[in-house]
Design goal:
By secondary structure, the protein is an all-alpha fold. The chain is 62% helix and 0% strand. The relative contact order is 0.15.
Length: 249
């Protein structure tokens, strides 16, 4: 049974025009209760079976059963699911073509998991969030906005970047990163002045490559999400807004 406290806060969320989850949910609530509360309110307002979170299919292309996939892909999915507590839908959707799945995630790992260069994990997720918003990609904005909240330890800025990075509460270094990223995103001509702008904020040519490559990789990801009509997992919407439920020993 859901507590009246969670239900009341879920109800207030329905009338909050700014969707300020961080104000409307107790930070003591866990993911499952919060999602269940929202969907329960949906049932009350719109009838049984209604959901406030999307029940849309993961992809418009066939999604293979994990057990039917090659062993290396199953292992990758299991590792991600164990770490995250759920399997992001991008893994399920791209599994439709195993060779392309492997190629995409190999490049993803090379860029997003590398520990060299000046870009932090929060910087990288900020780039993905801003450029994906520019490309109208629901999946990547929601998923990587969630990761930006977690890595930046800031529940607000990711939402601002997703709407309009130019008015977001960013420092000048972050703004320089996004100016460069958005110019790559729009395929604008890159000149020496772009590199000079980055250098003023302590970012070298290697960092410029990373910024541009992330923008380019997620231009591909955004378009694949559009092609497949990929939808974010429910869990992404609350990540970084309320504490994650701890695993029982």
């Amino acid at each position: 049974m859901l507590s009246s406290r969670i239900m009341n806060r879920a109800c207030r969320l329905l009338h909050d025009p700014h969707l300020q989850f961080c104000r409307t949910f107790s930070f003591q609530a866990n993911y499952r209760n919060a999602v269940a509360a929202l969907n329960s309110v949906g049932n009350q307002k719109h009838g049984s079976g209604s959901r406030l979170f999307c029940s849309h299919p993961i992809s418009r292309f066939p999604v293979p059963d994990k057990k039917d996939l090659p062993q290396d892909m199953q292992e990758r999915m299991n590792e991600v699911e164990e770490k995250s507590g759920f399997l992001p839908n991008v893994f399920k959707a791209l599994a439709h073509r195993p060779d392309e799945f492997r190629a995409f995630f190999a490049y993803y790992d090379a860029l997003m998991m590398k520990e060299t260069g000046s870009l932090t994990k929060a910087d990288k997720e900020m780039i993905v969030t801003a450029t994906s918003a520019e490309n109208d990609c629901l999946y990547c904005v929601v998923a990587h906005g969630a990761l930006m909240r977690i890595y930046s330890k800031n529940r607000i800025t990711a939402d601002q970047v997703a709407i309009n990075w130019k008015t977001a509460e960013l420092d000048e270094r972050q703004r320089a990163i996004l100016r460069f990223a958005l110019d790559v995103c729009h395929s604008r001509t890159i000149t020496e002045s772009h590199f000079a702008d980055l250098e003023q904020h302590g970012l070298d040519r290697g960092d410029a490559w990373d910024i541009g490559a992330i923008a380019a990789l997620f231009a591909l990801s955004n378009r694949m999400a559009h092609l497949t009509d990929m939808r974010p997992n429910e869990e992404f919407y609350l990540m970084g807004r309320i504490p994650r439920e701890k695993k029982k020993e």
